[in-house]
Design a protein that fits this description.
Radius of gyration: 26 Å
Number of domains: 2
Number of helices: 7
Distance between the termini: 67 Å
Strand content: 15-25%
Largest sheet: 4 strands, antiparallel
Low-confidence stretches: none
Strand order of the largest sheet: 1-2-3-4
Shape: elongated
Length: 200
């Protein structure tokens, strides 16, 4: 990393600030290059009690890793509006985030789990399409081609609207994540099976 600035607070309002031209992570150790460390005893105290300038500053007691930082960036950079359109994160990203953060806050947990179920449900859309297509293909009699095209467009439109509504409600925590992710597939699969059973 280049142009690094790290700040953290300790009990008693003690604040430490490190600024460096660059930083790298190897074998559990953060190395800051051309670093300056400033320690403030209190927020009101502008004068530092300790100032350290060095070519290389090593810190080995931090739990933060590049993997954790990248995971945080992906999750915090995900807007609820963008997440409502379709699953934005890969299953690997989601599982990695949950491994690093086993107990996220309620809002983040709803967002991440909805994205996970949305990703798992996505491949099953192919089966749902077949279940919906079966009754329409089995219907006898001649039908207008435009009616078939219009029905297909309506079904696709309804599916994607239902997908976005489900993801939006799941991301906000208004629906359980598994229902939010699987809602369109479940409804359309049940509808397809019901229509197939009614075909004579």
């Amino acid at each position: 990393m280049r142009g690094v600035v790290v700040e953290w607070r300790e009990p008693g309002d003690k604040r430490t600030l490190i600024s460096a031209k660059g930083a790298s992570f190897n074998d559990g150790v953060w190395k800051f290059i051309d670093a300056q460390q400033l320690i403030y005893e209190s927020p009101q105290d502008i004068a530092t009690t300790n100032r350290l300038s060095t070519n290389e500053l090593d810190i080995s007691d931090w739990v933060e890793t590049p993997e954790l930082i990248q995971s945080e960036i992906k999750i915090t950079g995900l807007s609820s509006k963008k997440a409502a359109k379709k699953p934005q994160l890969s299953i690997a990203d989601i599982l990695n985030y949950l491994r690093i953060h086993p107990h996220p806050d309620k809002a983040t947990r709803a967002l991440v789990n909805t994205q996970l179920h949305g990703r798992i449900a996505a491949p099953w859309t192919c089966l749902v399409v077949v279940l919906i297509a079966l009754p329409f293909g089995a219907m006898s009699g001649r039908r207008n081609v435009f009616v078939g095209v219009a029905s297909s467009i309506f079904i696709c439109f309804a599916y994607f609207i239902l997908l976005q509504v489900g993801l939006a409600l799941g991301n906000k925590g208004d629906l359980p994540p598994w229902i939010a992710g699987w809602l369109p597939n479940l409804l359309f699969a049940i509808t397809g099976i019901w229509l197939t059973l009614r075909v004579r």
